[in-house]
Design brief:
This protein is mainly α and about 170 residues long. Helices cover about 70% and strands about 0% of the residues. A two-stranded antiparallel sheet has the order 1-2. Strand 1 (about 85) and strand 2 form a beta hairpin. Helix 2 packs across helix 5 and helix 5 packs across helix 6. The radius of gyration is 21 Å and the shape is flat.
């Protein structure tokens, strides 16, 4: 189920609102601030990163992929995007302010992926058991997405080849 709003009509030739640079700066500041607080908390708790192998990076990468795609694209998370988007295509509202900037963030899987990676990495330091469980669960779900896509592609190609050979007979 996707929650949508009707898009606002824009008069012909009317330019889009100016990009919300102030809101972008605020979001960037919040990102840096949250990472700073997480770093201070990790130091106070005397926690150091334990995940430093190539496997850890690969798992974090796949988990980040899954988390960002889920937030930016899945129907189950449409309630997160709903206040910041409009229309069936879920385009960010064009307010020229914070609402538009957040809409751009939550509909861009690469953008929200940066936040997801930071959250996952931080949870592995601040709350290692929870962080590892969350990261590995998301990574397994992400790997499942790749396997499902591969299966569909192989099945489709097999069906296509079978149809071609049946027409030749």
């Amino acid at each position: 189920m996707t929650i949508t709003k009707e898009p606002r009509a824009r008069a012909a030739g009317q330019p889009s609102p100016r990009p919300p640079y102030g809101a972008y700066a605020g979001i960037f500041g919040a990102f840096a601030g949250v990472l700073g607080v997480a770093g201070i908390l990790a130091r106070r708790l005397q926690r150091e990163p334990r995940c430093t192998t190539p496997l850890d990076l690969a798992v974090l990468s796949v988990a980040t992929f899954k988390a960002s795609r889920t937030i930016a694209r899945d129907d189950v998370t449409s309630f997160i995007r709903a206040p910041f988007v409009e229309g069936e295509a879920e385009r960010p509202v064009e307010t020229g302010g914070l609402q538009q900037a957040i809409g751009e963030l939550v509909t861009c899987s690469r953008c929200v992926g940066t936040w997801a990676a930071a959250v996952l990495a931080t949870t592995q330091i601040v709350a290692p058991r929870f962080g590892r469980l969350l990261t590995w669960s998301l990574a397994a779900a992400g790997a499942n997405d790749f396997l499902q896509a591969g299966f569909v592609a192989c099945t489709s190609k097999t069906n296509e080849l079978q149809e071609r050979s049946a027409h030749r007979l």
